[in-house]
Amino acid sequence: MQQFYMPVRVVEGAGCVRAAATLIAPLGKCALIVTGRSSKKNGSLDDVVAALEGNGQRYAVFDEVLPNPTIACVRAGAARAKEAGADFVIAIGGGSPMDAAKAIALLARQDIADADLFAGRYSPDVLPMVHIPTTAGTGSEVTQYSILTDDVAESKTSIATPYIFPRLALLDGGYMASLGHNTTVNTAIDALSHAVEGMLSVKAGEVSDLLAKESISIICSLAKKIAADRLAPVDRQKLLYASMLAGMVIANTGTTAVHAMGYSLTYYHEIDHGRANGLLLGAFVAFCAQHLPERTDAILQAGSFESPAAFSQMLADLLGQREALTDAEMKKYAAKAIAAKNIANCAYQPTEAELYQMLKISLEEK
Amino acid sequence: MQQFYMPVRVVEGAGCVRAAATLIAPLGKCALIVTGRSSKKNGSLDDVVAALEGNGQRYAVFDEVLPNPTIACVRAGAARAKEAGADFVIAIGGGSPMDAAKAIALLARQDIADADLFAGRYSPDVLPMVHIPTTAGTGSEVTQYSILTDDVAESKTSIATPYIFPRLALLDGGYMASLGHNTTVNTAIDALSHAVEGMLSVKAGEVSDLLAKESISIICSLAKKIAADRLAPVDRQKLLYASMLAGMVIANTGTTAVHAMGYSLTYYHEIDHGRANGLLLGAFVAFCAQHLPERTDAILQAGSFESPAAFSQMLADLLGQREALTDAEMKKYAAKAIAAKNIANCAYQPTEAELYQMLKISLEEK
């Protein structure tokens, strides 16, 4: 038995935020715009404000979301939402503002203690949301996940509930025109990792595979342009589409061992989330090639690679010099990862020793 | 600007109705099961009853849906729903029961006069629905359309509103094991027509095209087995998947000139809906090849055809002897079709004279 569910309305194309104003109008009287310090400086905030003003909707701005948002951050955002009387939320940014916005929309309506925040008991009473991605990576605009930094677990943990699917995702690649090279690379790798991991998940299905293969095909066909920092506007829109598809994939499949290990690289070494996934992805695909040859072949075929080694080489070209860890660190992260729920989600589950081997292959040794 | 929206949760696989019982449980206390005289005789009704009884949910059965359901039929169903105190609906069958169930779920909660039924003003208050297709054709399990026979318009007309998307679609190809040959052929052609027309719609988008191409690829790869009546159970499940994908396509794109003309063949000559589409589809693709070569090429490539003629030949092999119409009838149906909203939906809009030409090519002359 397989399932597919994707309740988010997706609107795509240049100028789509202003053009979709009529879809924003029914959501409420006052928006809380959730964004980061810089992710709104690309015309996106102007477009949102124009749409809201045209609709006669009020708004307040919460622009204090930092990368890898914490519980304290989303509590501050929820307080701002209540204070402003916001009855819907508009998220503008990469994964951090988009994920934070979901938790804010939840906490603005429900009192949940820190200890219960990741426990999975939520009511459907959540502010409706519009998500506007300004990077092509996380796919958060079409998922039911809010990934937050959890200092108790010393990792990233997710709020996962269908109640936090955005109502509307507005995808305008124009907002990425001046995105920095590193961010472009890391987010593209993040999206690729979602599509690939989705096909290696125990929950992979026909629809999710179809979307994943299209996403892999698009991202890999643009890999050389990404590495050379030569993306045309049409390529930016394609990447945004591919990352959205990969988001639809993980909304249905979840992620796997790559994310389980990657969270430690981000938590303890401040390695960007997408890059952390990319460092580990080649080793995971090579590992799966031994146990799930059909699935791995489908991934390689979608990206036009002849072997897992060719796939890893493409990633190596994007990643450059790899970070160095001590052997003790790698042991620790393998031990943390094996306990993560993403491991049970792998179509072929690695052992702790195998995770340790993947970390050894993926990183330099200090 | 393009949009994609598909809020139906799709569950697929052998035994999925009983396996998905937990997804049916939250929908209500008493189901109205809407079905036809025969479409439940394949194990589907037993599975639904077992799931409901396991959940402790009551049910009533309305099995009076005939092919091409009328307004009177859905009013009778709505009355039955009220009488039984049904708070949700389960549809079992092909397009007729599934489409009727949507109108019943609407009319059980809203008083709408016949004259206003197709006028597009509905409230969101509709009974939640579960759709269980027993043919692989209509895709109604994932659309917001309820197509009814409208004796005032002397045609088929649709209730179209996002409020009538089913909550849940349960796809078990096992229910089609003993489906008659004609029904198998006609419904497969219907699904193919949806996927092809979706790619020739003014609303075609990246996601709908991706789903349409996959659907075309699957159906055309099975065309010889369909014609020879040699479908294995795995092929039945694939066809059901393909027709569901094609339903997701038309939910986003609507249909085109083929449906606009086909409705007259069904209304005046009782030609099965899928067959009516199939009779016209080859001529429409050949027409579009002159004006939209890129889109047509993508369709032909998805189905592995070298030319529009090869595509038409595959349809001819499935259709056999074509029905004969008088010249006056063809003129009349072209005139009726040009006024239909499906024409404005064509990426390249044919004139009335061109519709008449397509009818002439598609049918024998009496």
Helix-strand blueprint:
Two copies of one chain form a homodimer.
Chain A: E1 2-12, H1 16-19, H2 21-24, E2 30-36, H3 44-55, E3 58-65, H4 71-84, E4 88-93, H5 95-107, E5 129-133, E6 145-150, E7 155-160, E8 168-171, H6 181-199, H7 206-221, H8 223-227, H9 233-253, H10 257-269, H11 273-291, H12 293-302, H13 308-319, E9 324-325, H14 327-338, H15 341-344, H16 352-362, E10 364-365
Parallel strand pairs in A: 1-8, 2-3, 2-4, 4-5, 5-8, 9-10
Antiparallel strand pairs in A: 6-7
Helix pairs in contact in A: 4-5, 6-7, 6-9, 6-11, 7-9, 10-11, 10-14, 11-12, 11-13, 11-16, 14-16
Structure commentary:
The structure is a homodimer of 366-residue chains. Chain A is globular. The longest helix of chain A is centred in the middle third of the chain and has 21 residues, at 233-253. Chain A has 366 residues and is α/β, with parallel strands linked by helices. Chain A folds into 2 domains: 9-175, 3-Layer(aba) Sandwich (Rossmann fold); 181-365, Dehydroquinate synthase-like, alpha domain. The mean pLDDT of chain A is 96. In chain A, helix 6 packs antiparallel against helix 7 (206-221), helix 6 runs parallel beside helix 11 (273-291) and helix 10 runs antiparallel to helix 11 (273-291). In chain A, the strands form 3 sheets. A 6-stranded parallel beta sheet of chain A has the order 1-8-5-4-2-3, sandwiched between helices. Chain A has 16 helices and 10 strands.
